[in-house]
Design brief:
The structure holds two protein chains of two kinds. Helices cover 74% and strands 0% of the residues of chain A. Chain A has ten helices and no strands. Chain A starts with a helix and ends in a 7-residue tail after the last helix. Classes of the chains: A mainly alpha, B alpha/beta.
Chain lengths: 266, 292
Amino acid sequence: MSTKLRATTRYLFLEQLKQLGQGYLALLVIFVILPLLVALVTGNITNFNLLKTVGNFSLGAFLALFLFILNVTTYDVFKLLIQNGIARRTYWAARVICLVVLSVLGEAIVGLYYYGVYAPMHNLTTQRALSQTAYSLYADFLGKNLAVNLLAGAVFSIILYILIGTAGMLIGSFLALFSKWVQWLIIIILPFAGFSLLMVGISNVSGYSNYDFSGVEAFFKFLIGYPQNATAGLFNPTVPTITLLLLSAVMAALAYYCSQHLKIKQ
Amino acid sequence: MSIEIKGVHQAFHGKVVLDNLNLTIEPNKIYGLLGRNGAGKSTLLNIISDRVPARSGAVTMDGQSVHENNAALGNLYLMSEVNLYPPRNKVDQLFKKTANFYGGFDTAYAHRLAGEFGLDLNARFGKLSTGYRSIFKLIIALCVPVDYVFLDEPVLGLDANHRDLFYQELLSAYGERPRTFVISTHLIEEVANLIEHVFVLDDHRIIINGDVSDVLAKAYAISGPQADVDRYTAGLNIIGADHLAGIAVTYVYGTLDNSRPIPDTVQVANQDLQKLFINLTNTTKEVSTNVN
């Protein structure tokens, strides 16, 4: 790793770590401290259950949202880095490294909380808790070894976080190419246009009652790793894992292409 | 070791901003980059520092393209009017961030300069006045360990005392560690004695590229009665004229006709850099074809 890449990665990582800490703190303030204070002030402290409140966080969803927003933010960091003589390529590489490291670190925190706090408070065994995660369809595929299943579940989650992060990176890098006004236009128009197209597509297809969807169905089954007559938990995670990795790589590559065209706006 | 700008062409929304520019910026020299508003000075500096990629042409440092080149980009610093630092960061935090990216940043010198200029290290960048933002960026420009420093309107918002202090510090820093400074400014009189070499950008092209002493040696102000001045300057490269209380002053850029005797009523003096600039850029079309 070059000196510049190391310096940039270190800078980004420490900033992101600080922001993640601030995010967790905000969660604590909004969902624990404020309700506690309100309960104290209104005299309803007997109805306030601290353990129940602490045990109901969705840290995984929070981490996914955090990684997405973090990676959408592109231009402000680019400004600082180009002012300090850092090339666009180095910025992109540092972001990818930080995303991977933060996904691993974040998943470790999520895992500790989920299996250490959430599962016991909801009277769930560890294997049962695993069956309620994004890995639920594949939770028993690798057999009965709990450690292996937990590790596989964690890896699957990390890849999901990376996919969400690279999606944010692509959107952020793309939007950063435009002026604020055009950015808002894109944010408003694109989802609307996409939804309209979808509606048109559905209405067109619904006119053909004899349209054969079996090909589409088979493709989706293939993508989620559905084998014949398997029950949830015994799906094969190989294809979905590879698909997620490929999608992440494509989005990271597109983000790289967009970041190569970043420039300081006049 | 130099920065070469070869055939750089840039246009925004179909309007040409830089038209096939060719320049060489050599090490350890102080340059002046002069041009009227909209001439393309800031665009040129943005292209050199890779903030804006050139549409065509190339910028190289030691033969290596500057574009996407960490080594080259880390060996230059552009201080510009545009504020690229996070507004919520404190001044001292930004010094530390700069030190992280530019290894060898002279933090002690930065703190000393902040003290001299009265810049509060704990102030947030976004809360600084225009003048103090300029001072902050100037301090960084003087403390980064680079060989090429580009200053785009460096004294924007600075009062006379701070401008004077900056020029002193610039010369002192240059004396201690020679490096290249390229100063783009409208305050020509203030930098006229600092710069060794001048580029004049007009109508999106370089119309003057030379050492200040050589350029001024060819810039004359010929004064006297109108008829005598007209007779003496006939056929020379006239770039401007003034009339004052019956006395005519004609400005010439180029060599005089040595075979032509100077009438007793006519005086020949040299123009200063600002006057030369005004005359050259006022008469773009006539001059640009004759001066190079």
